[in-house]
Structures are given as structure tokens and as C-alpha cells.
Amino acid sequence: MKSGWMLLLAAWAIATMATAGALFLGEVMLMTPCTLCWYQRIAMFPMVLILGMACYSNHRSGAVYALPFACIGLVFAGYHTLLLAGWVPSAWVPCGAGVSCAKQSLELFGGVQIPWLSFAAFGLITVLLVCYLKKTSLCNPKN
């Protein structure tokens, strides 16, 4: 097993759990996602396939392709988290119609909101991918 493969596997596992959770909330619990949640889903869902293929083939290019999705998702999740915390003015809320991005009705684990979990997932994936890419750097003499 090549060095760093476990980092890639952990990133894939987190993306898979986050995708399964988002699909469960939408399809089983029938919760309609807000605009910011949709943007986070757009960033998270492709990473399951990209990182899965990268794990299977043990090829570092999958991490290179997944890292922009993780960074973009991290930005949206961070903005959503700040919005829920009340640190972003309500005039900057992107949802004009439909489900409000500023109001969350579901809390898990005693008060943890969904955007916080999304921010943690994107943050962990980003850190794992950066560590994996550093470990498997082409300039690294160990590879």
C-alpha cells in the first residue's frame, strides 16, 4: 500500500457519509434544501465519485481534481455557518424565494446544525487532500 492512501480513503469516506446524509435528509425526511445547501451538494456529490476512483486506482490526480470542489464547498459552508451565527447581514442572503438559508429547523447531536457539519466535512476533506498531495508530491524522494 502506497504512502498516504489512507488519507485519500478517509477523505472519500467523509464525502460518502456527507452525501448519504444529505440524500437521507432530502429523500427520506423530505426536507427541501435551501440555495446554499444546493451549492454545497453540488460541491460534495462529485467528490464521492472522484475520490472513489482515486482510491481504487491509487492515483494522485483524483485528489488534485477533488481539491477545488472541497475548497469551493468549504467557502459556501463557511458562509452558511456565518449566516446562521448572525455574523453576515441578512441583506446578503442568496435565497429570495423558497426555503430560507438563514433559518435551520433541524439540529443534530444536541444543537449542531447541518451547515456546521458541512463545514466540518469540507474542512476535513480539504486538510486530508492537502496532506495526501504533500505526501505524494512528485518532488518527494520517498515516492
Automatic annotation (TrEMBL):
This is Disulfide bond formation protein B. Belongs to the DsbB family. BdbC subfamily. The keyword NAD does not apply. It is a multi-pass membrane protein. It comes from the Bacteria. It comes from Rhodoferax aquaticus. Its main location: membrane. Keywords: Chaperone, Disulfide bond, Electron transport, Membrane, Oxidoreductase, Redox-active center, Transmembrane, Transmembrane helix, Transport. One of its GO terms (molecular function) is protein-disulfide reductase activity. One of its GO terms (biological process) is protein folding. It is found in: Membrane. One of its GO terms (cellular component) is membrane. InterPro entries: DiS_bond_form_DsbB/BdbC (IPR003752), Disulphide_bond_form_BdbC (IPR012187), DsbB-like_sf (IPR023380). The chain crosses the membrane at residues 38-56, 63-82, 114-133.
